[in-house]
Amino acid sequence: MTEVFPDVGLREPAEPSGLVAAEERLGRSVPTELRQLLLESDGVLGHFLVNTVWSLDQIVETNLCFWSDDTFARKTPAMPRHPSTITPPWTGWTE
User: Quick one: which of 51, 56, 67, 95 could link to 83 by a disulfide (CB 3.0–4.6 Å)?
Assistant: First the structure.
């Protein structure tokens, strides 16, 4: 990754057991590409130390927050109220 993006900041890899725990908390699998990235670096820092890719902990906490907040869980056909049926803010999740 640093060959393509030399200014990127990498972190220590996420632990495989942390990915399993995250999937249990979220009730769905982490997408394959995201899993591979997190096993190389638990998040990625871009220019000005901006979280370009969140850490595993931040991914879990943010999604749980979105799924439990009535602001994001409206009663509409596009976004059902039950958190397990809400589409996450990005694609690639599997159940």
Answer: 67
